[in-house]
Amino acid sequence: MKYILASNWKANFTFEEAKIWFESIGSKYNEVRNEVRIIAAVPYVYVHYLSSYGIVDVFAQNVSHVKQGAFTGEVTVSMLKSVNCKGCIVGHSERRHIFGENDDIINKKILSLQENSMEIIFCIGEKLEERKEGKTKEVLFNQIVNGLKDFERFDLLIVAYEPVWAIGTGVPIEIPDLIDAENFIRKIFKDNFNIDNLTLLYGGSVDKEFVKKIKQETTMNGALIGSASWKPDGFIQIIDNFINA
Ligand code: 13P
Prior knowledge:
The protein is an alpha/beta fold. The chain is 44% helix and 16% strand.
């Protein structure tokens, strides 16, 4: 089983804090790298510097859907590639719902990453009202099928199931609901793309306790973690609990 623990920094960390985090997690990683892959999704401005540490895999949290040209302020896939960025988060609910990114934009970003052989953490997840209305499966299906139109490089793909209502609330999903969503997502990939070894992470209020349940009670491949991963000591505890679970 291939395990991943990915830290999504979001819009946090000064440069000094970023270096401290990388030094702490980097020395921990030397002990555990055979058991778990660690990824840090960092703000654009730190990608180049942090990639040069060469220990924890550096991802971006976003990328432009345009390839190049007169698009003031955009950061493109080829720019990220040229500073040794390994991959990028795409479709995070904060991009979808705060910045209005739709499936079409998300698909363009994914195809652009594919063209450059960069890895993709593709986030999907339903909103609370969608869950209450019984639309969870329909929402996940549409996000997957629309986001992955014309996509072929499944070796580059990591999917993160992040129910929107569980992000930043301190309340993760219940395990039976996670198992249900996991089975459904894996079936979508099997039925539509003939993929039966999908790398699938859970995200949404993961902490040092929930990470044990993910490992013990599901067949998910790990977690995408926000706030509980921002302090190095907290993330080290999460890594230890996951490995020892
Ligand atoms: P929290 O772990 O802070 O809920 O954030 C989850 C997330 O959005 C990871 O991408």
